[in-house]
């Protein structure tokens, strides 16, 4: 990471633990610890991942451990005080870097391709979760929000922390629990200084499978029946001819 990014972002700590089985084919699991402190909002993050999936993060405001799946919290514990101490050290080091360095603000970058999709296939009137994904942006400062028919939506909205990538960029998910109805239009609005168009809006509306009309059904059934009858008649004719040839 360049010194410019280092000064703006703080320090990023990576710890990778490789666990291999004793089988002939080696299977590796990677546990990643990611923590940073920066002068922007949010000021920092402390998070653990296993094979790229979040296990837990520490809420620096409430000073509590937030497990991605509640089941993890019932079988394991984590020392939140240690995480807060690490963040305090990063803050101290960043303050020293600022005092001793003639730094400039890091360049903001972001990928314009915002993705919106659902977790499950859509059925009108059935609950489903809408997902908005922003990737490859830096620094980890982004605003993501939902609109329904151009009106802001706040109920049923959840999000993730910032997920780091090996290239130094970040990604973030924003979720919305919805009951899709015909004619509804949902918008994920993303704001980041690195976007070529700020904000960037990504639209989504229910796309249902095209159903064949009743008339088309009748035509297809009629064609199938005709082919069936033709096959039966042809079979009878061939049997009769076969008998005559034998005689």
Describe the structure.
The protein has about 250 residues and is of the alpha+beta class. The protein folds into 2 domains: about 5-100, Class II Histocompatibility Antigen, M Beta Chain, Chain B, domain 1 (Roll); about 115-205, Immunoglobulin-like (Sandwich), CATH 2.60.40.10. Helix content is about 25%, strand content about 35%. The protein contains 4 helices and 14 strands. The chain has helices at about 5-10, 70-75, 80-100, 215-245; strands at about 15-20, 30-35, 45-50, 55-60, 65, 115-120, 130-135, 145-150, 150-155, 155-160, 165, 170-180, 185-190, 200-205. It has a 5-stranded antiparallel sheet with strand order 1-2-3-4-5. Residues about 1-25 have low confidence and may be disordered.
List key phrases describing it.
MHC II; Class II Histocompatibility Antigen, M Beta Chain, Chain B, domain 1; five-stranded antiparallel β-sheet; Immunoglobulin-like; globular; disordered N terminus; 247 residues; 14 strands; alpha+beta
CATH topology of the largest domain: Class II Histocompatibility Antigen, M Beta Chain, Chain B, domain 1
Characterize the biggest β-sheet.
5 strands, antiparallel
Instruction: Note the run of SSEs as H and E.
Output: HEEEEEHHEEEEEEEEEH
The overall number of domains is: 2
Mean pLDDT: 82
| CATH-scheme architecture of the largest domain | Roll
Radius of gyration: 29 Å
From the N-terminal CA to the C-terminal CA, the straight-line distance is 92 Å
Strand order, biggest sheet?
Answer: 1-2-3-4-5
Low-confidence stretches: 1-24
Query: According to CATH, what is the class of the largest domain?
Result: Alpha Beta
- Characterize the overall form: globular
Helix percentage: 25-40%
Number of strands: 14
Q: Counting H and I runs of at least 4 residues, what is the number of helices? A: 4
**CATH homolog superfamily of the largest domain:** Class II Histocompatibility Antigen, M Beta Chain, Chain B, domain 1
Summing up helix and strand content along with how strands pair, one would put the structural category as alpha+beta
Strand content: 25-35%
Signal peptide: 1-24
Subcellular location: Membrane
Family: Belongs to the MHC class II family.
Keywords: Adaptive immunity, Disulfide bond, Glycoprotein, Immunity, Membrane, MHC II, Signal, Transmembrane, Transmembrane helix
């Amino acid at each position: 990471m360049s010194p410019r990014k280092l000064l703006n972002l703080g320090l990023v700590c990576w710890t990778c633990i490789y666990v291999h089985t004793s089988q002939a084919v080696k299977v590796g699991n990677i546990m990643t610890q990611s923590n940073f402190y920066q002068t922007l909002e949010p000021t920092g993050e402390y998070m653990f991942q296993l094979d790229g999936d979040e296990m837990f993060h520490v809420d620096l405001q409430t000073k509590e451990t937030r497990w991605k799946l509640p089941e993890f919290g019932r079988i394991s514990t984590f020392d939140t005080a240690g995480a807060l101490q690490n963040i305090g050290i990063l803050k101290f080091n960043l303050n020293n870097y600022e005092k001793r360095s003639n730094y400039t603000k890091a360049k903001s970058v972001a990928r314009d391709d915002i993705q919106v999709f659902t977790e499950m296939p859509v059925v009108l009137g059935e609950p489903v979760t809408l997902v908005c994904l922003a990737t490859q942006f830096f620094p980890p400062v982004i605003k993501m929000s939902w609109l329904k028919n151009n009106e802001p939506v706040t109920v049923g909205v959840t999000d993730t922390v910032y997920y780091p990538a090996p290239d130094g960029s970040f990604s973030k998910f924003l979720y919305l629990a919805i009951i899709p109805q015909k004619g509804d239009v949902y918008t994920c609005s993303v704001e980041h200084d690195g976007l070529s168009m700020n904000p960037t809006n990504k639209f989504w509306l229910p796309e249902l499978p095209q159903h064949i009309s009743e008339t088309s059904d009748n035509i297809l059934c009629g064609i199938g029946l005709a082919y069936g009858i033709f096959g039966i008649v042809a079979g009878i004719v061939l049997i009769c001819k076969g008998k005559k040839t034998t005689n």
